[in-house]
Structure formats: C-alpha cells, structure tokens
Amino acid sequence: MTIDELITAARAGSERATGKLLTLVEGPRRDEVLAVTGSGRPRVVGLTGPPGAGKSTTVAALVTAYRKRGLKVAVLAVDPSSPYSGGALLGDRIRMAAHINDTGVLIRSMATRGHLGGLSAAVPAAIRLLGAISYDLIVLETVGVGQSEVEVAAIADPTVVVLNPGAGDAIQAAKAGLLEVADILVVNKADRDGADQTVRDLRAEAHVPILKLVAVRGEGIDELVDVIDAHHRDDNADRQSARARVQILSLAQTLLQMHPDLVPLAEAVVSGEIDPYGAAEMLIAAPAEVSPISR
Predict the structure, then answer these.
(1) In terms of residue numbers, what domain contains 255?
(2) What single-letter DSSP state applies at residue 108?
(3) Which helix (H) or strand (E) holds 50?
(4) Which of 84, 100, 122, 227 is the most buried if burial means most Cβ atoms within 10 Å?
C-alpha cells in the first residue's frame, strides 16, 4: 500500500495501517508520511514520575475516563531502548489489558533509542500523524528516569507528575527537576500511610494543583480529568511557543550528539588544538551530511 492508501485505511479504522504508519515515522520515511498528513493537532497529556509510582495504572484509568466521554485515545508509552535491538523493552499491551479490544484506543510503545529527555525523537511526528487520522487525545507515558524526564513538558499540555506517598518522593522529585515542569501533581496510592504528609511536602515545594489518587480503583480519576481539562483551556500562545522552542532544542541536541564532526572536535579539544567554546561553535556551524533524526 502507498502512504496515501495507508492513511485512508487508518482513518477508516484499520489498526494495521495505523501501526504501519507509526513504524514509518520512526524510520527514514518519516518526512514522506508527514508530507501528506496535514497539520492535525490533537490534545496531548503527559504523565511522568519515578518508577513504581503507578503511571501505567493511572494512564489506563484516564483512558477509561476519556473513552466514557467519547474521545478516541492513543497511548504512546516511551520505553527504554534495548541495548541489542534498539526496540522497546516493555510490552505495549501488558499494562493496559482492559483496552486491548477497544477499537477507539491505540497503545504503542516507542523506544527512546538514545534520545535525551525521556522521549523518543519520533514522538512529535507520531503525535502529528495520530491527529491527522482522527485521534482526539494522546497520552504520553515516559520512562521515569529522573532528571531528563523534563522534556515531556515540551510536548504535553498539561504535564502530570505521578508520585508515591512517603519514601521521600516529593524531595526526590524536586531534586530531579520534575516539580519544575509539573502542571499537575498526583499522589497515587493515596490509601497508603504517608499520603497526607506527601501532599503537605509538595505544597511547600510547588504551586500547582495537587490531587490524591488510588488509580487501581479509579478513585480521584474524574477529578483529575476535570483539572486536566481546565488546564488545557487555559493554554495560550506564549506557552505553546515556549514548548516548541524546548522541543526544537531537544531534537537539535540529539542531532549534534550524532554529528560526524563531534569525535574529531573532541579529539582536538583533548590535544589542546582548540578550546571547548570554539569547538562548540564549529560543531553548530558545520553541516551534517546525514540527519540522524530522519533515520
């Protein structure tokens, strides 16, 4: 099938065509796909936080809530890359078994493949594609690796940070920079001891809505949806521009990491032929023959 035929089939509900298109935007034919998708811009909600906080359970509960509202939802779970295959280590479907047979829900794992920031370099393209084939909402779940997770805020509106009660999660989140990018903070597993103290700790560190949740039972999900929707309505051009700038810089950093001149410039710095400042200017000025983002 041609790309046009795949897009037509995907818009008609073909999961196979949608999967094929997503595979293409993760590879060298990304630009071909994007050239014919138009400029669809679905809503994007990001969830991040430390491992074990219950992000996947929260995502599944959110999908259920939005499906009840009649929205077509895609979940992009951005996973660590396999050191052998470059693929996602975590399975797409295991975490969201309740939605496997729902044709209004797409679940896709995307490997980071060495991209900084906890997101895959293909995520912006995947979001644009999904918007073009009539998905109303994209939920991004990131790997939860800590400091570099803040890139999710460049794409999502809002960014929801999910934390556990107790165990110093509030302090660790502050150290990791997660509180700086959080639009909404969620203390999951709020039926456990320490939840109220964690909320108090967070209020001392952040000035955003803080909610308590028991995602496994769906408790607090409707309130979270209301807060997410209210935040989205308050979005403005300045915030959209700021997110775009961060997104561009993040992708540019990935390009520079794989620039063919990086190694020889580093060797020149080590030998004392040039200082790091000059090397940085030369790296930015030097054209790259192959764009790794397009691979």
Answers:
(1) 244-286
(2) E
(3) none
(4) 122
